[in-house]
Amino acid sequence: MNLDHTHDPAALSWVESANVAECDFPIQNLPYGLFRRAGHDESWRVGVAIGDQILDLKLAASAGRWETAQQVLLQDLALGDMNRFMARPSAQRRALRHALFAVLLAGSKQQAALQPCLLAQRAAEMAVPCRIGDYTDFYTGIHHAMTVGTLMRPDNPLLPNYKWVPIGYHGRSSSIGISGGGVRRPWGQLKPPHLEVPTLAPAKRLDYELELGLFVAGGNALGEPIPMEQADEHLFGLTLLNDWSARDVQGWEYQPLGPFLAKNFATTVSPWIVTMEALEPFRCAFEHPPEDPQPLPYLDSSRNRVEGGYAIELEVWLQTAAMRAKGESAIRLMRSNFKTSAYWTLAQMLTHHASNGCNLQPGDLLGTGTQSGALAEEGGSLLELSLGGKQALTLPNGETRTFLEDGDMVSLRGYATGLGARRIGFGDCSGTVLPAHQAR
């Protein structure tokens, strides 16, 4: 692991809120996001989350004292150009992390200069953190694949290729939105069993999917694969990702070419990118079970086996419109861990994506697929928790759900903990279901 002084669990910041035990954004995290002051028509700029504050890097670049090399790196972010920064070598990205850690550390001589560069997160408007040129969604959640496969094909849950190749499909980058927004219930062509002819109607089986999203750092030239030994250089950071799904539309349209309108109407990401440098303490060993096929050589490396996995706790929370009206808090529907839910690593996803010479670019987004746990109550979608809509969930207030209803707010949460490491989090990834548009 590439551990250094920025991972010291005892390190504290002069931003007091960053020192609270359960804070998502202690000084050991320092994730990047794109923001502006709420209610102001000003340019978007990149900031770093620290406690309940945002360090405005546009202001900090001018107010702080920086070495020349650090100033060059800050200029990309001061201009709001996250993609240009993402394209830089990992050594440079790590160098800026060290510089930001130093100026935010308790006792820093730059506290007085940088204090005015802070903005409370509650006073900020957030945007999708970078330009996402392309979006690919994988299917790496082994327990999700088994459960869904069993619902569809009881005698053959996993197709023959699943344990040989990271399965994925190309999604729609234009419909990716930021946490906190609404998600309009989509219309789609439906063909329930009792109808001879399909109909166009609002989706009735609207669902969420609990995923992580991987942002690509430096890309590769068209025709040139990325070997496993170099994959880590091309990983920038992670976000939470909700791959909203219209299950009834999906069931009718997905054969023979896979997901289309059932998936491309909305994808929600959390506003902060937690960098791979911040996640170093939470790397873990990763291997396929010995009885399973072992990865082909192009998807294997000694480092991937020793520390290709990441121990990240993931949760789904639900607040219905009725709960909100009564001032009742959201309830947790499930919990899983990426360490044991993913069948392929981040490095394997990226390497396979580029193995045919596909040219990935800085800011491209790779979804991991639904990260369900092994137990029935750890399903990462309502499709699993309700057994395909056959078994309704009863909520504490007496309401029931098989799939999402209008007004439901789904929130994904994630955090990483480990022995000898400070807990770091991702913040919320939330979205509220809005009614379908009226028929025209």
Can you walk through the features of this model?
The chain is α+β, with helices and mostly antiparallel strands and 440 residues long. It has 2 domains: 123 residues, Fumarylacetoacetase, N-terminal domain (SH3 type barrels), CATH 2.30.30.230; 300 residues, Fumarylacetoacetate hydrolase, domain 2, CATH 3.90.850.10. It is 20% helix and 25% strand. The chain has 12 helices and 27 strands. A hairpin with a 5-residue loop joins strand 23 and strand 24. Helix 1 runs antiparallel to helix 2. It is globular and about 70 Å long.
Short synopsis of the structure:
This protein has 440 residues and is α+β, with helices and mostly antiparallel strands. It has helices spanning 57-63, 68-78, 82-86, 90-104, 111-114, 142-152, 247-253, 302-307, 321-325, 338-341, 346-354, 382-385; strands spanning 32-37, 45-50, 53-56, 118-120, 124-127, 135-138, 168-170, 176-178, 181-184, 187-190, 199-202, 206-207, 210-216, 235-242, 245-246, 267-269, 274-275, 283-284, 309-310, 313-319, 331-337, 365-367, 393-394, 400-401, 409-416, 424-425, 429-434.
